[in-house]
Amino acid sequence: MSGFWQDMKYGMRMLLKRRGFTAIAILTLALGIGANTAIFSVINAVLLSPLPFENAERLVRLGGRDLRKPEELPSTFSPEDFYDWRERSTAFEEVAALDGWSPSLTGAGEPERIQAAKVSANFFSVLKVNPAAGRAFLPDEERRGNHYVVVLSHALWQRRFGGDPSIINKQIELSSQKLTVVGIMPRDFQMPRLTGEDLNQPELWVPFAPDLQNWSRSGRSVDAAIGRLKPGVTVEQAQTELDAIGQQLRQQYPQSNASAGVSVVSLYEQLVGATRPALFVFVAAVGFVLLIACANVANLLLARASTRHKEIAIRTALGARRARIVRQLLTESVLLAAIGGALGLLLAMWANDLLLALSAGAIPRFEHAGLDGRVLLFTLLISTVTGIFFGLAPALHASKPDLNETLKDGGRTSAGAGRGRVRSLLVVSEIALSLVLLVGAGLLIKSFVRLQSVDPGFESENVLTMTVFLNGTKYPQDEQHPLFFDQVVERARSLPGVEHVGVVSNLPISGNFDRRPIYPEGQLISEGEAQDTEDYMVNADYFGALRIPLREGRLFNREDKADAPLAVVVGESTARRFWPNESAVGKRIKLGDASNPWLNIVGVVGDVRHYGLDKPVNLQVYLPHTQRPSQQMTIVVRTSQASAEAGLAAAVRNQVWAVDRDQPVYDIKPMSRYVADSIAERRFSMLLVAIFAAVALVLAVVGIYGVMSYTVSQRTREIGLRMALGAQGRDIIKLVVGQGMLLTLLGVVTGVAVAFAVTRAMSSLLFGVSVADPLIFSGVALLLTLVAFAACYLPARRAARVDPMEALRYE
Prior knowledge:
This protein is α+β, with helices and mostly antiparallel strands. It is built from 23 helices and 23 strands. Strands 1, 2, 3, 4, 5, 6, 7, 8, 9, 10, 11 and 12 form a twelve-stranded mixed beta sheet that branches. A six-stranded mixed beta barrel has the order 15-16-21-18-20-19. The chain has a four-stranded antiparallel beta sheet with strand order 14-22-13-23. A hairpin with a 2-residue loop joins strand 8 and strand 9 (177-184). The protein is elongated and about 105 Å long. The two termini are 43 Å apart.
């Protein structure tokens, strides 16, 4: 132990003696270790940490599945199917249904739309979580008539009711219904995020109690189910059992369940499965940054070792063993890495906040990333391994000096061929790794640019949106819904700066949509073969508000009343799909069921990418909201200038409240934000890899410059001799630059080969770009070559200005 402390003290003195070298090495390592620590904290939160529930590995998510479209994500299912799964399955301890709900909370301040969930009475039991106050639901409360109870989230209890403990057993008003508060959940309880469902972080829960007497088994309205597997039962076994149950239901109910299946997915996989490829790319990127940092510091240590050759030679001559010298040098390397790791931790704390701001919710569970014990242990481990990794080669080279040459008076300070080869190999490695990162960043940037250039089918600038969900108790009749929204539209049109005011049932790129089978007249399509189309309820001015172009026919007008012939406007793809060589105007379709009335096509409009810029266009139809009313509509207001959006929000909301003060207005935001949010994950991936690539490029350039500068200083006598014998400055520049460019070209060729193999793992993150895009590969190779040339040219110019007499006199 005394020898260890002696090495530590001596190592610290040596680091303090060369403060410039020490500062550069520590900063370089801090960048590499800090970046790795920050990304590992994300990996730890997203992939390594279990869900915050007891035996969370046994929790699964159940969803409906259309056997005709196995590639689609799990979807909704009927309440009857859920009860059949729950009663017939033996693989689960418990299964609970979840259905999204958006009630209006009134009676205590301004009306507010609340994110809520209807859940089976055993929902909290499935998750093994109990309310912090009060109780959970009772089995009897899952029946109609007994279901007027509610459990509040801790956040809603604090925000809306001031944390009043006496709220238990009191009534609150939700969408004009009186419900009794029976429980309050713990502060840290968060419901699992179910991607693609309207079930993310509800603020209250009510019992799931469908009216089965007035329900059709074909009505697939339940969003999801969560089950807890019995001990020892795997997800695959549960899937096999439910597949068998699904087959029984298809035989028992051929009309409603002809293509109905069920999907069973680990709840953990449901949450993080889609983000795993991006996270692995991030890990590879920061790993490359750390390797480049290690190569840089190793080169610095090799250069520094040449200034200590006499010291090490003397210690060797006095009897010091090679292992003892290696231990001392490795101690200094690990000490460097430890200090760099400590600084890296500080950088990681800052980087975590930056990453969270950049991610904008693109990655689930990202908000839980932090510096816990596992992250600190990772930093300690990576610092130690890094210190040994970059310090081993310099230590082995430095610990084997040529005593005869080194101890001579005036012995040359040549670095030696072996040491030069190691430095050259490190430079080649830095360039290769940097090229891989730059290619990855280039592919993501080009992909993002391509994505942004995609025409969504509408114009989002200068458009303000807000949603209103009418109280079903106060507005029970369908004909009341369009009357309400028409009044709001007329009032909003009179506001200054307003050009168009539309309403739509589901806003593009908002994540919400409705689909129904479509049956064109004169085309024989059975119910099992019918394609689904997205259907949207709109008013006449909706197309003007989003500037969706009219291709043929007309748009809706005031004549399309409830008692008028049923009208429909279809998208271009829909028209081409069913009437490829003729006009769709004047044709008729049915939606949902072959027994429904015919709809007359009056116009064709441009396609809209409702699912996202990177998703294909589906079949689309638009119905006048006067003929197909909807309780929930989004108001779409086009303004004359962007600056008017913020001030206009309150004015439009006041117009809604002027019609009915009790109706909540929510999701108030510009349409452009929906578009930005739809590509947030791709933007985050691009920015993060681009940042790492920029750091790698800087480190690689510094490495090349450092090696070439050191080479020039070591070859001062040789250069002086060459110039004394007649060599010109340009000859010296060619010599030095040529040596550096040879290393650069070797690194570029190696990097291109590695990039061809590595970038294939990025295919899922790209849009409209090949993983082997020749323009990106050639452009990055050229950029890296030019930058490396500049890094070589500066030391070469300095070498060309060497005074031969001074160089020879010095030697």
